[in-house]
Amino acid sequence: MKKYSTGLWILLLLLMIPSPSYSQETVRITNGEWPPFLFEELKHGGVTSHIVKEAFALEGINVRYGWFPWARALANAKTGDWDASIGWQKTPEREKDFIFSEPILEGRIVFFHLKDYSFEWETLDDLKGIKIGAVIGYNYSVEFIEAERAGEITVKRIGSEEQNFKKLLSGRIDVFISNVDVGYAVLNKYFPDEEYDRITYHTTPFYINELRLAFSRKNQKSDRLLLLFNRGLQELKNQGLYDQYYESSRKGEYELSR
Questions:
Q1: Model confidence, pTM
Q2: Cβ 216 vs Cβ 150: under 8 Å
Q3: How far apart are CA 135 and CA 155, in angstroms?
Q4: Residue 136 class from Cβ within 10 Å (0-12 exposed, 13-18 middle, 19+ buried)?
Q5: How confident is the model at residue 202 (pLDDT cuts 50, 70, 90)?
Q6: Around Cβ 192, how many Cβ atoms within 10 Å?
Q7: Residue 199: which region, alpha, beta or left (left: phi > 0; alpha: psi -120 to 50)?
Q8: Residue 222 or residue 21, greater confidence
Q9: What is the pLDDT of residue 9?
Q10: Any idea where the domains of the chain sit in the sequence?
Q11: Residue 100 near residue 214 (C-beta atoms within 8 A)
């Protein structure tokens, strides 16, 4: 009886020890397509996907992404079927359904120009008389749209970032307004080094677009996951990895062909 009792206790103790294969928590996050930040066909799912995964990893949590059209991505997280959704602006309307992390992406909208073109700006008035390239359908802020419609600035829109860079290189526009990381992703993908090297951007951003993780208020785990994620994100920044990953992305190092 004593032998049986001892063996039973050992068995119970073994069952109480968490197995490494199953003990680590997994958070399920909806994702969408916005290269170079979020894209299933890039290394790590894009640089911002990588940052989110690494921040959670510092807290001992795995990440599994589900890829959806953007509207569906947010809807799936809103119901609590998924734990969170990546890449959203915090707005009063969205805060009714979600709690938001610290920014995972500070998207800087800047003016690209040729290195041999002297360009300085501080206000919209400084842009008068300058031919500004832009993408059809993109909203560059209420201020920009109003100035464009009023004819206060000269905006020449075309279908893509690639086409705008071609116009910039040929001198048909003076500057091109774009997210800095998207711009460099396009330059890395479509332009040879000699053309890439002719282009720079003004370091004063036109505006900064902060994107975050959105956690559903319907999910009981959300408060805890938010706390852990923000802590991991700060540690990633303290280690210098946050800036390092974005710099690697600007060099095209998240392309699968590299």
A1: 0.75
A2: no
A3: 10
A4: exposed
A5: very high
A6: 8
A7: beta
A8: 222
A9: 53
A10: 25-106+209-250, 108-206
A11: yes
Residue 242 has pLDDT above 90, yes or no: yes
pLDDT (average), residues 128-135 = 97
- CATH topology (fold) of 25-106+209-250: D-Maltodextrin-Binding Protein; domain 2 (3.40.190)
**Residues with Cβ < 8 Å from 90, sequence gap 6 or more?**
100, 210, 212
**What are 135-186's pLDDT values in tens digits?**
998 888 889 999 999 999 999 999 999 999 999 999 999 999 999 999 998 9
Lowest mean pLDDT among 3-7, 125-129, 139-143: 3-7
Closest CA to 135 of 111, 155, 107, 106: 155
Identical fold, 25-106+209-250 and 108-206: yes
Q: What are phi and psi of 178, to 5 degrees?
A: -165, 160
User: Domain 108-206, what fold?
Assistant: D-Maltodextrin-Binding Protein; domain 2 (3.40.190)
